[in-house]
Amino acid sequence: MSQSSDVASPSVGAVRQPSKGIAARLGAYLALTKPRVIELLLVTTVPAMVLAAGELPSIGLVAAVLLGGGLAAGGANTLNCWVERDRDQVMKRTRRRPLPTGQIEPSHALVFGIVLEVLAFAWLWATANLLSALLAVSAMLFYVFVYTIWLKPRSPQNIVIGGAAGAVPVLVGWAAVTGQLAAPAWVLFAIVFCWTPPHFWALALRYRDDYAAAGIPMLPVVRGTAIAARQILVYSVVVLAVTLVLPVVDDVGWLYIGAAVVLGSAFVAQAFRLSRRATGANAGAEAMRLFTFSNVYLALLFAAVAVDTIIRSA
């Protein structure tokens, strides 16, 4: 979930690179939705649905929720890009995005994001239920207004609170299956919620100069790399602890428990290594190793949720 005013004005001095042809323009609109972020969000949705159902849900429902969730996440990411277009222009990591380069007009991006959210709400309500639709849209509202506009420019704890938006897809998946929320859904939510700070702070540590140039008070900018790395270690331990709460509230098996222990221990070990090298010459590379592993960690952990449930239901 990434990156001057709270509601930015049209970029001044942006390098204009108008898209040539329909394919290029469609590619630019797709880039606004941040497809790689969507993939990560959806990775947590399906296992939540499997656990809620106690077996593999109908393929039709899974496909419908993935489509609706993808539309909602894409709309949220598009609106995030619209708000942060000036800030994105300052940062090396984001300055080639469609809005800073002028490939898409800001007003068009705004409309596109809103349309995606309307479609997501209508689709999830029609194919799943009202609760899942409301949860999906609430995640967008929280991400755009609470995180992007309010917290991100003001507090180094922005991602700690704002990360809740990225944890909502598990609730969407659970609600789509059951029509309500239960303790296991909230534990899955808590796993993603606690995982988000160490995941994102690792990226912020690598791009600390970018965030400083854009005036964004990420933890590594405000408190320094050493303190940020220690906080990453603390949160990685918290993530491991929270993953072990799931067996207390749901009948998960040894496959999940084993995966949670092994993967969580590896996560803590990676974070410990970063904390020891946070001020060294290779701190950026170490941070990116942790960032990359954190993606793998979350995908494998939630895959274990799904596989464990399917095996037990067979």
Provide a short characterization of the protein structure.
Helix content is 76%, strand content 0%.
CATH top level assignment of the largest domain: Mainly Alpha
User: CATH-wise, what's the superfamily of the largest domain?
Assistant: UbiA prenyltransferase
Largest sheet: none
* Architecture per CATH nomenclature, i.e. the level-2 architecture of the largest domain: Orthogonal Bundle
Distance between the termini: 37 Å
What gyration radius follows from the Cα positions, in whole Å? 19 Å
What is the domain tally? Answer: 2
Tally of helical runs: 15
Which percent range fits the helix content?
over 70%
Could you tell me the strand content as a percent range?
A: under 5%
Question: Mean pLDDT, nearest integer?
Answer: 91
CATH-defined fold name of the largest domain:
Tetracycline Repressor, domain 2
Low-confidence stretches: 1-17
The dominant shape is globular
Helix/strand order, N-terminal first: HHHHHHHHHHHHHHH
